[in-house]
Amino acid sequence: MSTTERHNVAPGVAEPRTLADRALAALQDDIVRGVIAPGTKLAESKLAARYGVSRGPMREVIRRLESRKLLERKVHVGTRVTTLDPARLSQLYYVREALEGMAARMAATAMSNVEIDSLHALLASHEQQQDLQEDIAYFQREGDLDFHYRIIQGSHSSALIDMLIGELYYLIRMSRYQFSSVAKRPREALLEHRKIVEALETRDGEFAEMLMRRHISRARLNIEVECQQPIPTARNADTG
Q1: How far apart are CA 78 and CA 156, in angstroms?
Q2: For residue 184, is it left (φ>0), alpha (ψ between -120 and 50) or beta?
Q3: How far is CA 63 from the centre of its chain?
Q4: Alpha-carbon distance 2 to 12, whole Å?
Q5: What is the tens place of the pLDDT at every residue in 123-162?
Q6: What are the residue boundaries of the structural domains of the chain, listed by start?
Q7: What is the pTM of this model?
Q8: Which CATH class is domain 86-226?
Q9: Does the chain have fewer CB atoms within 10 Å around its N or its C terminus?
């Protein structure tokens, strides 16, 4: 099976329609999951061959991934996969804490009862994951299968959606993949998700914001501890 054929699109994420779209989805997925490690130098011609497109479309794919902060181009160096150093990670999580906290506050009044019920169902499906039951990992696919994505969408704020889903979403997912295997954290993260949904259900925006901020702050603190160790290149779990 080719690289482009194996990409599965989660609900809430547009189905790739062209070869270039499929190449974008596949390369993005490989970067986010750490299949292509942070800091890897990328050659346009090799990428084009690997993902089954010509160099012209691949050039556009690279440009779009640069706009999503997953690739960085430097003069006399070339294009490399973004490396999330400790300082940058810390800043990213402080931004998440503020913006996703606000999203949770707004979602408490903006989400319908049906949307909140669907969050309960989502977390019930997450709980069935064997790795989570064993407290090893908490894997969330993108789009509607991602708890944080649902909360952001549930805020019904175009500004927050643009920032957290449009600009920062895949960089955030990359960080969540790389720094997620923390002892006891997977089940703690699920419990924190459940408490956030309970706050949404009671329409307590202030409490929902506090819980979300605390949830992301704990993830940041865990990452700061892990950053004292060699940065991992691929994880398949989620802490925040």
Answers
A1: 39
A2: left
A3: 20
A4: 24
A5: 998 888 777 777 676 777 778 889 999 999 999 999 999 9
A6: 19-81, 86-226
A7: 0.78
A8: mainly alpha
A9: N
